[in-house]
C-alpha cells in the first residue's frame, strides 16, 4: 500500500506541475502577439530597381534584408536589368500582381512610373520610394540623399582641403536635377561662407570617365591656378583622377567625388581622390522596409489614417552623407 | 495489480508528455531573443521639452509612448515648465545623470543647449532632436517639420481656395527662422507657380492674437481687395479670425493658419479659418523613440559605426504636414 500511495502522490504532484505549467502558459500569451515589432515570414516585401545588376544597389538591398531579419519577414529583389523605363514599368506591374506586403521602388524617371506606382497604392499595397523619387506619385514616403545638402558638405570639405582659398571647378551632369542640386549646394556655400574661394567653371562631364578626363585636361590648361575639382558623379571623378595622374598634379589639385564604386575607392586609396561622398544607401533600404512594415501593420497614427490628405509616415527622409577618405576607405570595399 | 499497472502507464505517459514539452521548449528558443524588435521594460527613454505643460507636446509624447509599447520599453517625460533656457539645461543634466537608454530633446534654442547635448552623446547616451533642432550639436538625427515645404503646401492650398487669383498677405514672426522659412516657401511658390496671385504684405503679428487682430484690421483697410491671409503661427491665425468675424468678411477672406490648438480648431470648425496645417507631431515622437532604440541596440549599419564622420541614422526626417479643414477637424480634437 505504501508503494501505491507514493505512486499516487508522485502522480498527483506531476499532474499539478503539468496543470500549473499549462495554466502559466495560458495567462502569459505569446509575447510576440502583443509586444515587440514582428511580422510573419510569409509577408513578402519587394524591392524594385533599374539596372538591377549594378553594385550601387547592394548596400540598399542589404539594409532591406537586415530590416526584414529584424522583423521576421521576407524580401524579394526585382529590377529592370537595363536603363529602360518600359522594362521597369513591367517589373513593377509584375510585383503588384503578386499582391506583396509592400514595395520599395527606386524610380528610373521622376514622372513615367507615377501611374504604375499609383496603381499599387490604389490596390492597397504600401509603397515607398528610395534613392530616386517620383514626387507626384501617391507613394507614402521618400528616403534618399538631400542632394543640395550633399553639395554643401562637399564645399565644406573642399574648403578644409584648400585652407579656405583658391580656384575650384565642378564637373557634373547639368541636365539632371540631382546633379544641379549638388552643384548649387556646393556653389552657394562657397559664395556665402568662403570669400577667398571661387568657382571658376562648371562643366558637363557627360557621366563618362573618358569625356570627363578630357574636360579636366582642358580645365587645367585654361585655369592653371585651379586647386580643386568637385565631380558630382563617380565616372566624372575617375576621369578627373586619370587626368591629374597623367599631368602629374596629384596632391596639387584636390578632387572630391561621389559614391563608392570600386574605381572611385581605388583612387581614394591611392590618394588621387582626396574624398568621396558615400550616400546612406544601407539606411535607404533598412528604413524603407521598416516604413512598409508599419504601413502593412497599421502601426501609424490612427486618427490620421481616417482622414483625407493623410501623412501616415514622415514624407521625406534625408539619409545623409558620409565622407570617405584614405582613413576609412577600407570599410567601403566590403559593400 | 491491474490498477497499479494502469497508474504506472498513466504516470509514464504524463512524464513523457512533460519531457516532450520540456524538450520542445529547449529546441525552440524564445523568439524575442532572436526575432522581432523588442527591448526590455527596464530600458528607459526620456523625452525632454520646454513649456512642458503645453498641449502641443501631447501628440509627440503619445507617439513616443506608442513606440515604447510596440518595442516593450519604458518612457519618462521631463521638461522645463517655463520658456527658460537655463531650466531646460538643468532638466537635461538631470536626465543625463540617470544614464537612460536614450533622450529625445526639443531644443528651446538652436545654440544654447548644444554643450549639454554633446555631453550626453560623449557619455554614450543616444540623443535625437525633434521639432526644434540644434544643428551644431552631436545629436544623431533631427525629426521635424520642413518649414519651407509647409509654406509651399500653404501656397497650394491658398491657390485652391482662391481659384488661383487674388491678393494675399502673410502674418508672421519675421525674426524667427522657422517662420521666415514658412513665409519664403509660401511666397516663392505663389511667385513661381501662380502668376495671378500676389503677396501684397508681410506683417509682424508678434505671436499675439490681439496684436495680430489689429494688424488684420489694418490690412483690410489698406488692401480692400485682399482675399487671403496666411498666418504662420496659431495665435496670429486666431487674431486674424477674430478680425474677419468682426468686420463680417467671413467667406470673403480665406485664412490659412498653423497648428491645431483648441482655439484654432474651433475657428476651423466654425468655418472662419479655412484650413490649418497640422504638424506630424505623433510621427516626431514615434520615430524619435524608434531611432533611439536602434542606437541603443546597435541596429545600425555596422561598418559605418566604426568610421569617423559617422551617420548611423538618417540625418533629417521631414515629418510632413496634414491639411485640416472642417471636413477632418473632428479628428484633431482628440489630441
Automatic annotation (TrEMBL), chains A, B:
Put simply, this protein is called Arabinose sensor protein
Q: Where in the cell is it found?
A: Cell envelope
Q: Where are the transmembrane segments?
A: 5-24
A GO cellular component annotated for this chain's UniProt record is: cell envelope
Domain Periplasmic binding protein, residue spans: 45-291
Q: Which GO terms describe its molecular function?
A: carbohydrate binding
- Which Pfam families is this protein grouped with? Peripla_BP_4
Instruction: Give the protein family.
Output: Belongs to the bacterial solute-binding protein 2 family.
Q: Which UniProt keywords apply?
A: Membrane, Signal, Transmembrane, Transmembrane helix
Presence of keyword Cell membrane:
no
> What is the native source organism of this protein?
Halalkalibacter hemicellulosilyticusJCM 9152
Q: Which InterPro entries does the record match to this protein?
A: Peripla_BP_I, SBP_2_dom
Q: Which domain of life is it from?
A: Bacteria
The protein's matches in SUPFAM superfamilies, at most eight in alphabetical order, are given as: Periplasmic binding protein-like I
